[in-house]
Amino acid sequence: MLTSAILEPEILEKAHRTVREFHELIDLGLINKEGEFVPTLMYLPMTQHPPMTEKEFLKGYVPPRDNKFMVYGHIPFCIQQCAFCHFPNVLGASDGEKDVYLDHMNKEMELYLKKIGVNRMKAHCISVGGGTPTLMTPAQMKRFLSFFTSRVDMGEMKQFSVDLDPLTMLGYEGRERLKIMRDAGVGRLALGAQTLSDDMLKKMGRHHTAADTLRAIGVAKEMGFKLNLELICDYPGETPEHWVEMMKQAVKLDVDEIVVFRLKILPYGINTAAVNKMLNARDNPLMSNDEQVMLKSVSISLLERSGFVETVTRFFARTSEDYSVYLDDWLGETRYDNIGFGYYAMSAFHDRQKQNTWDLKEYCSEVDAGRLPVKIGIVRSRDQQLRRNFMMPLKNRCLLSKKLYQDRMGVSPNAVFSGKIALLKKYDLLEEDADFLRPTKKGRFFIDEMTQLFYHPDYLPFKRECYKDGPLNPYTDNVTLTC
Length: 483
Fold this sequence. Notes:
This protein has helices at 9-27, 54-58, 95-116, 138-150, 171-183, 198-204, 210-222, 240-250, 289-305, 325-333, 360-368, 382-396, 402-409, 413-426, 441-445, 447-451; strands spanning 68-75, 77-78, 90-91, 121-130, 152-153, 159-164, 188-194, 226-232, 257-261, 309-310, 315-317, 337-341, 346-348, 352-356, 374-379, 400-401, 430-432, 436-439. By secondary structure, it is of the alpha/beta class. The protein has two domains: 24-44 and 393-473, Orthogonal Bundle (Arc Repressor Mutant, subunit A), CATH 1.10.10.920; 48-333, tm_1862 like domain (pyruvate-formate lyase- activating enzyme), CATH 3.80.30.20. The longest helix has 22 residues, at 95-116.
């Protein structure tokens, strides 16, 4: 239990106040009755997309005049499936199997660009994720980055980021990978540490140690990279006391960003994580939702006290200039089309989105047949565009430009959502001036739930009966938009 013996009274009181606000929002109908958490990752939720063909995805698509894109590459390989991960991954692949995958990813890039009529993409930013991209050998990493960047003009690129785990950064091969990435233009690394506790790492199914993380941070900073440290704050078995001590350690590390994720129990990817099985277990080891909210509040207080500022939602940086440009582009103002390559990769264009197949054999066979490996997707309706272009910048950048919305949609956000905006202002969740809408401090904390108020009923994460009939119930006065 958190007490004033390990936390300053003002931090502890703020956490208790946030829990009270959490229950008030349940009573108002904004948060489901059980307080369960489903993040607002993007709209429309990919798990609810219908099947889609390449022809349906490409029909009528016009690429940007300047050929400028966000560019994403997906490397799906993992040593083992982490217990918290809801995404499909390819486990235990041999080097030969990785080579075959790279062959097909290279072919897919060639196919994709040819089909949309683009010779070479201008990258506003690049992100490579997975999986664990750095499970490739140094030679494979060099080959991948060579063909990947050969199709990209990086002259105006703002950031090149790669996801990786600590163990793959260490030793001779680790340094070789980092050197290859640095030489290819990579400047930011997202380090999936998840915790600084060996005991918790074992519970999560991770294969590295806390000492590996600390050594990896040292190597990355020595080689000049910007570094983002990823942590999960409420994993089963974690105690609030231990988490506080760990956060006090984390804020002293030589990293540029720290992102604190809440544990996602309910599936938000194609798979269901092993941790989901604990939800209905007889001896449920999960923290209560109250405890999770309290830990998130404490984490934010400890980060802010140490000089970190929130840039993109859940991401805290030592300076406002250090943030994920890719995440901001993709889920924030969405100024650029996002083109994704690889198994399970997503593309999110200004009016449509799709996800590639997560069956590796199907991925390869589709590419061999000269087709994009599209599995699911949608061309957004007017209703879906009105909602998406409102909630995504509000949720992820915590700022909605009224002018930008007007320019894109031909109507002001206040004209579309006047009733909901007024309600959120009434309950101190949203504020506005002549140019912007932005969440209050309270609204920013509950931003995932707040933005779900703008979901169409077909896409809400919980059924109507799961919410109380308060004024902020997301099903109330929620009809298809036609303006």
